[in-house]
Amino acid sequence: MIDNPKLLIVDDEPSICRACRRVFSRQGYEVEHSSDPVYGLSLAENGGFDAILLDVKMPEMDGFQFLQKLRETNRSVPVVVMTGYPQLPSADSVVQLGVSRFVMKPFTPEEIFEAVQTARTAAQAAVYNDASPDGSWFAPAEGAVEAPVDLWRSAEEARFLRESWSRLGENGLVRMGVLLTRAKQIGLRAIRLPKLGQKVIQGEPIATLEVGPGRPPIVVAAAVSGEITAVNASLMEDLSPLIHEPCCGGWIVESRPVRYADESKQLITRRLFLLNSDAKSSREQIEKLRNLGCEAEAFAAWSDLAPRLPQLGYDALMVHAPAFGEEGPSLVGRANEAAPDAKVIVNAAPGTGLEAAYRAWKIFYFAVEPFADNEIVDILDAVFVRKRH
Hints:
The protein contains 13 helices and 19 strands. It is α/β, with parallel strands linked by helices. Strands 6, 7, 8, 10, 13, 14, 15, 16, 17, 18 and 19 form an eleven-stranded mixed beta sheet that branches. The longest helix has 21 residues, at about 110-130. It starts with 5 loop residues before the first strand and ends with a helix. The relative contact order is 0.08. The model is unreliable at about 125-155 (pLDDT under 50).
């Protein structure tokens, strides 16, 4: 783990260089910048940087010419390309040039910082995964098997660091994994797993997922620090649990935590109340929500839910619209009053004709059968990741 990473910024607009320098200097980076791409290239070739921020449109040498020359001497440094132009090279060219990320101008400080951090994390993951002699996928080490299921029946609810989750078992060990959005699930091909005994740090890589030609790997970060005690080797043969049961059978690693009490303060519990008077669909939805890492609780009637609503805070309430007919929108209105900060999700059936009535109240998301097409994972991401960070 690098305490003071070095960043190079190359952009012919001095104002962009200065703005990015302020963003990263405040985060502990050592920053150099150049408005001259030729001089910037000499810095990149000799400066030992941990990442490079590179503009596309520059005089004398554009960003892709810069990259072509840089990759003759340095194939590994992660490069985040900044551009105000949507015309980007082909996927093959992106792979050949080693572009880690594209960021469209104008961007926010949060967007540019996250892009560089993600690029660095992916580069670090590539380094430790390529540590095997032939660079192949890691085979599971002897003894790297799933712990007995009964040890996890009393595990605490999943707690999240952005998309990554952890669950503390009654045996004192932690299981970790990731909840992927639908876009990230497309084209999953293989997983790289860490070795037994490897030390992991909160926020640093524990695994990478290969997602097909022309796309960078997905880096899975550790939700908490610890030492790897087991890996879910079955994922090397079948990745479907990462989609269908991500917070149960789709666990990735098991570890012995080292700072759980302190680091758990950085994690959030995804709490969701469900209002649904239909017993069968309520049970099915609660099971699916819990399998997606939610601390989910069902209520059949408004009278049961109302006393609990003030406890929701910034968490979520899902209303199963088909169970309440035309009364549903007024129930949302009451929920707005009882828990004004809660995010209301309306789970509707096709063709009910009540969308306008629901949207007249404050709702966060109106979804048509989100469990049927797995849209629910995107909704949870919107509620608990994008709106919180």
